[in-house]
From TrEMBL:
<protein>
    <submittedName>
        <fullName>Putative membrane protein</fullName>
    </submittedName>
</protein>
<feature type="transmembrane region" description="Helical">
    <location>
        <begin position="186"/>
        <end position="210"/>
    </location>
</feature>
<feature type="transmembrane region" description="Helical">
    <location>
        <begin position="12"/>
        <end position="34"/>
    </location>
</feature>
<keyword id="KW-1133">Transmembrane helix</keyword>
<dbReference type="GO" id="GO:0005886">
    <property type="term" value="C:plasma membrane"/>
</dbReference>
<dbReference type="InterPro" id="IPR019108">
    <property type="entry name" value="Caa3_assmbl_CtaG-rel"/>
</dbReference>
<dbReference type="InterPro" id="IPR014108">
    <property type="entry name" value="Caa3-assmbl_CtaG"/>
</dbReference>
<keyword id="KW-0472">Membrane</keyword>
<keyword id="KW-0812">Transmembrane</keyword>
<dbReference type="Pfam" id="PF09678">
    <property type="entry name" value="Caa3_CtaG"/>
</dbReference>
<keyword id="KW-1003">Cell membrane</keyword>
<feature type="transmembrane region" description="Helical">
    <location>
        <begin position="156"/>
        <end position="174"/>
    </location>
</feature>
<feature type="transmembrane region" description="Helical">
    <location>
        <begin position="266"/>
        <end position="288"/>
    </location>
</feature>
<feature type="transmembrane region" description="Helical">
    <location>
        <begin position="87"/>
        <end position="105"/>
    </location>
</feature>
<feature type="transmembrane region" description="Helical">
    <location>
        <begin position="126"/>
        <end position="144"/>
    </location>
</feature>
<feature type="transmembrane region" description="Helical">
    <location>
        <begin position="55"/>
        <end position="81"/>
    </location>
</feature>
Length: 317
């Protein structure tokens, strides 16, 4: 059945994740309470800017769309939606949090005992780079992914770990915690972005150029139904199985599994290129602005020195 809209048969809870929606609202509420009312309780606290609040709201809307709307349900049905979820979650949502969270709050969060140990990894950018990309590649090994999707606890634990590793990976580029002199310069930041893309490429290439479907949870009916328990209430799924209404993802789309898989790999690669292009542009123009500022400062300093020398010379003439 070539009709994705038929996912409505799974019911409102599976499609719109109301509990996750409440969680997103609660996080948003806490964010604005901290940044608008309680910011004086933090060292260096200041009122939030309109730009930061707008980015945070946009990011939380994206969080719900990607992980709480029918997009999440479709990510368990079609591999192409799974990769769409991966791309937005780890390559857009994660770095946007650095733009949305004020500097004083970032410093407080990173100073918390457990968090401090985790983000200590980011002090070694190469390690942070390898950790995320290595974990991402291992997760997409068929034997790993198929087994993880059979356990809700294991699957969501790995998704959270990958998200944390994505935050750690982008820390050396976008954090507001470290003093400027401890940051990589603009050139190294751009090379770092290129490095992320290069390390993601092998996993994408393996998925795109595979000669046959790799993941049982997107092709085998029994494995797929077991994996669907991650997002569909058990009662709803049992009822649909008992009526013989569904047997596999082919019920929702006429796309061959291999084409779905290849589309997923292509989506990941294209989204990566789009997001990284914006990042590179942002880093380049901020670097250029800082360089110009430094040059202007040096020029001003030289002119001031010359003026003082002239005044000193005139006093002794």
């Amino acid at each position: 059945m070539d009709n994705i809209s038929s996912i409505s048969i799974f019911g409102f809870i599976a499609n719109w994740s109301p509990f996750f929606f409440i969680f997103v609202l609660m996080v948003t509420l806490v964010y604005f309470l901290v940044t608008k009312r309680w910011y004086r309780e933090f060292e260096g606290g200041r009122p939030i800017t309109n730009k930061e609040s707008a980015i945070f709201i946009i990011n939380m809307v994206l969080v719900y769309i990607i992980y709480g709307s029918p997009v999440d349900l479709l990510s368990h049905i079609l591999f192409s939606f799974h990769m769409l979820q991966m791309a937005f979650g780890y390559l857009l949502i994660a770095p946007l949090f650095y733009a949305a969270i004020p500097d004083y709050l970032q410093k407080y969060i990173v100073s918390l005992p457990v968090v401090k140990q985790i983000f200590a990894i980011a002090k070694k950018p190469l390690v942070a780079l390898i950790l995320f990309n290595g974990a991402f590649s291992v997760y997409h090994l068929p034997i790993v992914m198929d087994n993880l999707k059979m356990s809700a606890t294991a699957h969501y634990a790995v998704i959270i770990i990958l998200f944390v590793l994505a935050l750690v990976m982008f820390y050396p580029i976008f954090n507001k915690v470290e003093p400027r002199e401890n940051h990589m310069n603009g050139l190294f930041k751009m090379l770092y972005i290129f490095g992320i893309g290069m390390l993601l490429t092998p996993a994408c290439a393996l998925i795109i150029f595979a000669s046959e479907p790799m993941f049982r949870t997107y092709t085998n009916g029994d494995a797929w139904l077991s994996a669907m328990e991650l997002c569909v209430p058990a009662g709803t799924l049992e009822s649909l199985k008992g009526q013989g209404m569904i047997s596999g993802p082919e019920y929702f789309t006429g796309m061959d599994p291999i084409h779905d898989q290849q589309t997923g790999g292509i989506i990941m690669k294209i989204m990566q290129e789009i997001f990284f292009s914006f990042m590179l542009g942002f880093i380049f123009f901020r670097w250029y602005k800082h360089e110009r500022k430094d040059e202007d400062e040096m020029t001003r300093h030289s002119l001031e020195e010359a003026r003082l020398k002239r005044e000193l010379h005139s006093q002794f003439r």
